Amino acid sequence: MKNINDSLLSLGHWPFAGSFGFNTDILATNIINLSVVLGVVIFFGKGVLSNLLDNRKTRILNTIRNSEELRGGAIEQLEKARARLRKVEMEADQFRVNGYSEIEREKLNLINSTYKILEQLENYKNETIHFEQQRTINQVRQRIFQQALQGALGTLNSCLNNELHLRTISANIGMFGVMKEITD
């Protein structure tokens, strides 16, 4: 690079030969060269650059259009998802309410059935007590009757003769049979 700069500097010391020569002013030559290059690039590259820009513009517009379509689809899916979420939330609330009502209903049913069972047990207890009382009363009656009968038989045996004694025993046995039928 240093050699090229040295050769360019050395060209600046050459004398001008007629009307043809090299312009050794670097700043002036760069501006001219750049304008020539830009002119050529603009003249010949205008179509290519225009095509590239048009293609890029078309791709950008297609991307924007696709993005808008995707955005619309995403918004639609979001609305559907929100609707499903609301529906599921309402169903969950309904299940929760129904669950609480079902629990309360089951609790009341359990309490009612427990009261019914307790009432039945109370009735069974009362029936058992009544039955035992009746049985005890009947046993006491039978013992009293047997003792009274034995006392009467003892009194009759000491006071009566054999014939009267046999008639009294037959009558008492008949009465005892009738009383037994009544108590059974």
Low-confidence parts: 7-17
Through-space gap between termini:
145 Å
- Give the tally of β-strands: 0
Query: Judging from the principal axes of the Cα atoms, what is the shape?
Result: rod-shaped
Q: H/E element string?
A: HHH
Largest sheet: none
Counting helices, strands and paired strands, the structural category is mainly alpha
From the alpha carbons, calculate the radius of gyration and give it in angstroms: 66 Å
pLDDT averaged residue by residue: 82
Query: What share of the residues does DSSP label as strand, in percent?
Result: under 5%
Helix fraction by DSSP (H/I, runs of at least 4): over 70%
Number of helices: 3
Walk me through this protein's architecture:
The protein has 184 residues and is an all-alpha fold. It has a domain at 30-133. The protein is built from three helices and no strands. It has helices at residues 2-11, 26-159, 162-183. Residues 7-17 have low confidence and may be disordered.
Secondary structure blueprint with pairings:
Blueprint: H1 2-11, H2 26-159, H3 162-183
Helix pairs in contact: 2-3
